[in-house]
Write a structure and sequence with these properties.
Elements: E1 9-13, H1 18-29, E2 33-38, H2 41-55, E3 59-63, H3 69-83, E4 88-91, H4 106-134, E5 137-142, H5 155-175, E6 180-187, H6 193-196, H7 205-212, H8 224-235, E7 246-249
Parallel strand pairs: 1-2, 1-4, 2-3, 4-5, 5-6, 6-7
Length: 258
């Protein structure tokens, strides 16, 4: 299947590692010109070089702190100037801390809002003129399975991700006439370094993975490239009639019907 991504310009945020890196790699392999952003300049420069070597396509790395509005504005402006257009925006940011509701203070609420909700509103607003000029575009938000099912101690993540779901619905409605689709993708248990760091130290990796997979119908933890494959499809010309949706990639772990 031709995803029609050749020479499309894609911004992938929080892309120096994990899901963001897998998505940037997949989009680049499909022919897109990728601009990656993260706070760790050294790590993202290394990632950009790896993707270039693997795919042979252009990859630009630019540092950005997604919690700071002035940095987001400068980043999007520079990204738009790099190739003269923006076709795809992959909104992604590290998750807020887990804790019980009663332990979370105002400062933590504000940080979660700035990083996990307001940042996505800012980037989406700023790329809109570029996508309108290009005659269409794709906005894809990485959120969390907590929007579909209760996840213990995830009140910050759940509150902000639910806000993103509502915002994406409104954006899909408003941006549809411009041929811009807006969708959310919710990962389940995907084997990234962040997940590995939650495993007990010195534990048998295979044993821990097996134990964590017991509640997943497919019987295993997902791979980042499997998650990235769905994102690439939603970013493609083939997904032009999908908008306003939230899709889970969790091996069937969520038993909710809706």
């Amino acid at each position: 299947m031709d995803l029609k991504l050749t020479n499309k310009v894609a911004i992938v945020l929080a892309a120096s590692k994990g899901l963001g890196k897998a998505i940037a790699t997949t989009l680049s392999a499909e022919g897109a010109k990728v601009i990656i952003g993260s706070r760790d300049k050294n790590e993202q420069d290394k990632t950009a070089a790896e993707i270039r070597q693997l795919t042979g396509n252009e990859v630009i790395a630019m540092p950005i702190d997604m919690s700071k509005g002035e940095e987001i504005e400068a980043f999007i402006k520079k990204a738009g100037e790099a190739f003269g257009r923006i076709d795809i925006l992959l909104n992604n940011a590290g998750g807020p801390p887990f804790d019980k509701f009663e332990n979370i203070n105002d400062e933590q609420w504000q940080k979660a809002f700035d990083l996990n909700l307001l940042s996505m509103a800012r980037t989406s607003r700023l790329v809109l003129p570029y996508m309108k000029t290009a005659g269409g575009g794709r906005i894809i938000n990485i959120i969390s399975g907590s929007v579909k099912s209760v996840l213990a101690n995830s009140v910050l993540s759940t509150a902000m991700r639910m806000g993103v779901v509502g915002m994406a619905k409104m954006m899909a409605d408003e941006f549809g006439p411009y041929n811009i689709t807006v969708n959310n993708v919710a990962p389940g248990l995907i084997l990234t370094d962040r997940i590995k760091h939650t495993f007990p130290k010195d534990a048998d990796l295979e044993k821990v993975m097996h134990e964590k997979a017991t509640s997943i119908p497919l019987g295993r933890i997902g791979k980042p490239e499997e998650f990235a494959a769905l994102v690439a499809f939603l970013a493609s010309g083939q997904a032009s009639y999908i908008s306003g949706t939230t899709i889970q990639v969790d091996g069937g772990a969520n038993r909710a019907i809706f």
